[in-house]
Amino acid sequence: MRDVKSDQPTRSLSFQQLTALLRQIFLTHGTSPDVADVLAENCASAQRDGAHSHGIFRMPGYLSSLASGWVDGKAVPVVEDVGAAFVRVDACNGFAQPALAAARSLLVDKARSAGIAILAIRSSHHFAALWPDVEPFAEQGLVALSMVNSMTCVVPHGASRPLFGTNPIAFAA
To answer: What is the pLDDT of residues 9-56, one digit of tens each?
Structure first.
């Protein structure tokens, strides 16, 4: 992040104000209200929690992915009840966070009844903080583990090209 010069005006926003502002930005750039709600909450949570690299810093990436059509901001996730402890969601080329939100209650029910539950999300895009994804499960007394794949960008020692992703992972209990 760039340094803010002391002669430039700044303004502090409450969490609720930031969430509302981000929601409006997402709506203006073509997301549905449901998608805007989830993304704004996730982005504002990261900013509030001090992870500025995953807070409002990510807004240009969100907006350019929407403008280019790479991500469908109006996608409606399709939740599939696959088995006793398995839920699958087709995010329909949308963001992963709304797909998770659509499956959360079913996933919690399965975890409580089977003792474990697994969620697989496909056809999605995720470049946000992961802990806002898992915290709601911990708040309900569950243990949660979340992982996403990432592009190869890490060059291993002695190599000349990237081989590994950044290993995004989060857990909550």
So the answer is: 888 999 999 999 999 999 999 999 999 999 999 999 999 999 999 999
Cβ-contact 46, 129 below 8 angstroms: yes
Query: CA–CA separation, 26 vs 138, rounded Å?
Result: 28
How many CB atoms are closer than 10 A to CB 136?
15
Q: Which helix (H) or strand (E) holds 125?
A: strand 118-125
Question: What whole-number distance in Å separates Cα of residue 32 and Cα of residue 21?
Answer: 15
Q: Does the residue 138 lie in any domain?
A: yes
Residue after which a domain boundary falls, among 45, 68, 91: 68
Residue listed under structure tokens 């996933």: 107
Domain boundary among 43, 68, 93: 68
Which residues are registered as beta bridge partners of 134?
A: none
